[in-house]
Every structure is written in structure tokens, then in C-alpha cells.
Amino acid sequence: MTEEKINLPTHYTLERDLLEQLSDRPGHQRCVVGQDELLLVIHEVPKAGVPERDAIFFWRRHDGRWFQPDGQGLKGLNDLLDRYAKVIDENEEILEQTDEAEDLFRVLKHAGPLTRSSRNMVVALEQVLNQEPDDREIRTYRDRAREIERAAELLQSDGRETLLFWQAEAAEAHTKSAERLGNILFKLNLVTGFFLPLVAFGGLFGMNVDIPDFVKGMFWWIFFGGLMFGGGLLWYVAKERR
Length: 242
Known about the structure:
Elements: H1 16-19, E1 30-33, E2 38-43, E3 55-60, E4 66-68, E5 71-72, H2 75-97, H3 101-131, H4 136-205, H5 213-216, H6 219-241
Antiparallel strand pairs: 1-2, 2-3, 3-4, 4-5
Helix pairs in contact: 2-3, 2-4, 3-4, 4-6
């Protein structure tokens, strides 16, 4: 195992016990414990739709001093937490403003990796504190990582609730549209039923056949009788619907 396989910074001179625990890939977020040293493996902010993770290595030397890729200290860890917070805030803003399903899906697709990655970061920092319980700087970063984890969980939860609300809203609108259409069809059928007897009588007596003389003088009786019959049919149907 050599340092170059996992792209460790050139100024890292890890002890053999640490090197023997590493593979040719960075792996998950964790604290690798050696005889006198620690190596904290933390992932960069995940990108939506990208399964690969870029690792950042923080090395605590045997004398208690921390080193990061660009030099001494843990400022890079604070900058990483800032980037997590910024990405979560950007997704929250999109979630609040969008009314497009594509944007909502994009937020949900990103929220999952953000939640898992931030949760695993907390676990890795807890592992460091198990070895260095008095390290206040690590404890501060651990507490902030917990806040980011909670923010990521809320982002994911809000996204799912927004999706459920949109689904319920669409179902309600569909139900109302179906109800309006049903009412229109019902009224149309009432009008059709009202004139149905009149049309039937008109068709019957309008046929090209000889009509008895006593029927010819009863036109208006037949006409109003058809209207009354249709009105009775309309009243009965409306009563049954209520």
C-alpha cells in the first residue's frame, strides 16, 4: 500500500500502523486509528446524481497536531461544513420557490446523499472524539455537523411532504373536475328527459299514416300532456339523485 493510491497529500508521512489499515480506495467516512496517530476520512459535498465521493484526509500526528491537505490545522473541515450548509440552503430556496415537478425531483435526488453523507460525517467525528475526548475543536465541528445533518433531514422531509401535497392537490382537482362534469351531464340528461315524451309523441303522430279525426283536434292536449309527463319524469329523477 502506498500513499499515492488514495492521493494522500505529499506532506503526510503516516506511520506504518495507519498505512496497513488503508486500501487502494478512500472508502467510507471514518477515523482510522494507528498506534500514535489518527487519519480522519471525510467526504466532499456529494453532487446530485453522482455516486462517486471525493475524500478529504485530515491527519493528526503523534504530537497532537492536525494537518489538512493544504497545510496545518483543521480549517479545511470548517470550510467543508460551510459548503454543506450552502448547498442545503440553495436546495431549500429551490424547494420554497418552485412549482415544477422536475425541480422538486432534483431536490429530493440531492437531499438523500446529503443526509447520508452528513450523518456519516458525524459518526466519523464521534470516532475521533472517542480517541480524543478533550479535543474541543473536534467537538465543535461534531456539533455543527449534527446541525447540518438535521438540516439535510429536514430538507428531505420537506421535499417528500411537498410531493405528497402536490399529489393530494392534483387528486382533489381531478375529483372536482369529475364532479363538475358529472353535474353538467346530469343537467343535460334532465333536459333530454324532459323533452323525451314530447319527442316521442311528435315522432309517433308525425309518421306518414292516417290519423283518426278525433286525434287531430287534440294536438294541444297531446303537446301539454307530453310536457307534463316529461316534467314528472324530471322531478322523479332529481328526487332520486338527492
